[in-house]
Design brief:
Two copies of one chain form a homodimer. Chain A is of the alpha/beta class and 339 residues long. Chain A contains 13 helices and ten strands. In chain A, strands 4-5-6-7-8 form a five-stranded parallel β-sheet. In chain A, strands 1-2-3 form a three-stranded parallel β-sheet. In chain A, strands 9-10 form a two-stranded antiparallel sheet. The first copy, chain A, is globular and about 60 Å long. The termini of chain A are close together. The interface between A and B is large, with 59 and 60 residues.
Chain lengths: 339, 339
């Protein structure tokens, strides 16, 4: 079985964006009532909307996608805590409906109602609702809800601890995933995403977060940003800073996905990062949608790269399935392992 | 001949830091007069101070280092335009003295007196002074003088054009290099530096800057941040955004150094980026100072990695010398090519 740990619902029916547009319009004109209800979306609309994902699963030979709301649309910098809560709940509810329609193909991960400067109580509640009521198995945690201004404390700050306590209690991991950038310096998928990945890793390297939370698990997406390419730099920085070896630092707590869109990048990732810390992911349908003229295949068909990498069958199996089951243990109740 | 395009004066005599400390103390207490003069530093002190760099040149088999003030100490976010101008001039003057003492070993590149929100007139003047009066051959340009808050316009904004006009007129390149981070999210050498590299590349990808300045040349240090590792992602983004091929986009204008501190990283860089766009650099004495227990050699001894990479002699020569001469043409008057 092949589990893709990183898929976003980038193809939701237009009613979802219409709700968001209404929300933003109401923010600009306080005389307008804030919209609360999403227009009716039928099951047929939902089925139609995920055809691209289902087709890619079939064409690429993957089975299950860990599925979350569109990351760039989380946009936690827009509005206030109420805005973010309403928006997150609708986005998560739609993910839940898709997972209920296609329980063999999708397992849910939630967006969190983060807001710059706001406490994390809403996030704790929404995580609990999504896990306990909707059957979700993890969350996407935004280290920069300001959208490119980086005003939140580092992920290793005690500010985040109440949320981590809930994650540990529910035994669910977080993918560290920023959203859109409202800073003109940062293209979202071409800079902000990768910068956040790099930043989070270095924060983890500097701190004893995982001594405080030995079972806390974080996935750093997009192949870990710049980290594997600069693995020597990080090994050297850890050494200069009298920190543990990188492999010990990350062992049970930090994982990279395989959202790297060319063979040399995947080869590097698999060469330097322990196989136990890599989860198969593609980010489809997502950041890059084209076909690579050098290969004739989609850039984000990352399974091809993993298949062609010079690794043994045992490591490949870990990356394609076993590690993801270990990091997201709640998947076991939803998707049985093949025997 | 081997030219290292990326060396910083991280070993300057303590008088330089004492001046900086006085500057900062005066900022905190407006009753204090701002210091203007650096305490006397003898030539012998300067000779002693660069012994580490000279030893590394000998031990590693490199000849000339393109030498600039300590990048993390530029700290453009401290004080105001006057602070930054005084500090930059002293730092640049010391580089000039070192280059005069060791003209075969060091060629100067300047720090710029940038300040958040300030116009670039001081930078234009200081670049002109350093090139025309001190014989410098380039500059380090900070895309984020705020030190991790990213409040400046993107490097492709017309804000920067007066400075680019002067660079083109003088025929000198800029290394895009941030300084210290005052944002607790970003470790300087472990996150902020690499993020800035990634960010700058994506800005260049999105814009027609090099149509406006066909001879403008930018070096992206630290192996290009996350870019070569995500070369497929960038090829795909360029395609989705209807931009030219990456190799055409960067051809005469964007270059990466080799400050990547392990063999697999250098191998990836040399595999995906055209050899014409890579300049040898080590960042010594710099970000990582230890010895890699896996190799028994310094992490930042990047010449070893280039020597061991699977490339031909012609490409190796380009990377170790010829490309740097092309990007920094003023070096020819200072360091003759071997015949």
């Amino acid at each position: 079985m092949v589990i893709d740990c990183h898929g976003h619902y980038t193809t939701a029916p237009k009613e979802l964006q219409a709700f968001r547009d209404d929300q933003i319009a109401a923010l600009k004109d306080p005389a307008q009532a804030r919209p609360k209800t999403l227009a009716s979306i039928t099951d047929d609309q939902l089925r139609e909307s995920v055809k691209p994902q289902l087709t890619f699963q079939t064409d690429r030979g993957t089975d299950v996608t860990i599925f979350s709301p569109r990351a760039s649309a989380m946009a936690h910098h827009i509005g206030d805590a109420e805005t973010s809560l309403d928006w997150s709940r609708h986005c998560n509810d739609l993910i839940h409906r898709v997972c209920a329609l296609f329980p063999k193909n999708f397992v849910g991960v939630c967006q969190l109602p983060q807001t710059p400067g706001a406490p994390l109580a809403n996030c704790v509640d929404e995580l609990e609702r999504c896990v306990n009521e909707l059957g979700f198995i993890g969350c996407n945690l935004n280290p920069d809800p300001s959208g490119g201004h980086w005003t939140a404390p580092p992920l290793t700050d005690r500010f985040w601890y109440p949320f981590y306590e809930k994650m540990v209690e529910l035994d669910v991991p977080a993918m560290v995933h920023v959203s859109a950038s409202c800073n003109p310096n940062f293209h979202a998928t071409g800079a902000h995403y990768l910068n956040a990945d790099t930043t989070a890793f270095m924060q983890f390297l500097q701190s004893d977060l995982f001594k405080d939370f030995p079972t806390l698990r974080m996935i750093i997406p997009h192949g870990g940003g710049a980290v594997p390419y600069h693995w020597g730099r990080y090994r050297g920085l850890a050494q200069d800073l009298k920190r543990p070896l990188l492999t010990d630092l990350i062992r049970d707590n930090v994982f990279f996905d395989t959202c790297v869109y060319h063979q040399p990048g995947i080869d590097l990732l698999l060469k330097v990062v322990p196989a136990d810390n890599i989860l198969f992911g593609s980010e489809m349908v997502g950041a890059v949608r084209g076909i690579d003229p050098e290969t004739g295949h989609y850039y984000d068909d990352t399974k091809r790269y993993v298949d062609q990498a010079a690794i043994g069958a045992a490591d490949r199996r870990k990356i394609l399935e076993d590690n993801t089951r270990k990091v997201y243990p709640r998947i076991a109740a939803l998707v049985a392992a093949e025997v």
